[in-house]
Specification:
Layout lengths: L1 H16 L9 H19 L3 H7 E8 L5 E2 L1 H6 L14 E13 L2 E12 L5 E13 L2 E11 L8
Parallel strand pairs: 1-6
Antiparallel strand pairs: 1-2, 3-4, 4-5, 5-6
Helix pairs in contact: 2-3
């Protein structure tokens, strides 16, 4: 009897213990996740508080390029006195390059190069970003985010 119970338990729980393989991403998922990030970056460029509120999940863990970790409430608190900037007054546009998506279960991991382009000079500053995205009520939100300043050629290993 003990052997039967053990066999049944192994049959039920063994799949949960194995590592999950990446799954294919549908064209619709790729479009939705990429659009969510691009819409967010546009909103960040014009200081749109609503863009931040929609993009970041309530349980967000954000690790900044300066090594500080915080959640959505702290991030949103930093925007309390922010007003939207008209497009013709934006000083830097944020865009995404080299986007890579990987799906595991219902989550999608996004890796990309965030580019901040200074409007006046055209100078570009780049950051390597990685996020874990989940879909809720038809909206993709980031539950985890890491931003790393891109190494300069002299400091790259």
């Amino acid at each position: 009897m003990r052997s039967i119970v053990l066999a049944v338990c192994l049959f039920i729980f063994a799949p949960l213990a194995s590592a999950q393989e990446a799954r294919p991403i549908s064209d619709a998922e790729q479009f939705a996740v990429t659009s969510a990030v691009e819409d967010f970056l546009y909103g960040a460029s014009v200081n749109d508080v609503q863009a931040h509120d929609v993009f970041w999940a309530p349980e967000l863990t954000y690790t900044s390029s300066s090594g500080v970790r915080f959640g959505k409430s702290q991030l949103m608190e930093g925007m309390t006195d922010t007003t939207m900037i008209p497009e013709d007054e934006v000083t830097a546009w944020y865009t995404a390059e080299d986007i890579e998506l990987k799906a595991f279960g219902p989550s999608i991991i996004i890796n990309f190069t965030l580019v901040s382009t200074d409007v006046a000079t055209g100078n570009r500053e780049t950051f390597l970003n990685t996020g874990v995205m989940v879909e809720r009520r038809g909206q993709w939100q980031a539950v985890n985010w890491n931003a790393t300043r891109t190494a300069t050629p002299q400091s790259a290993d």
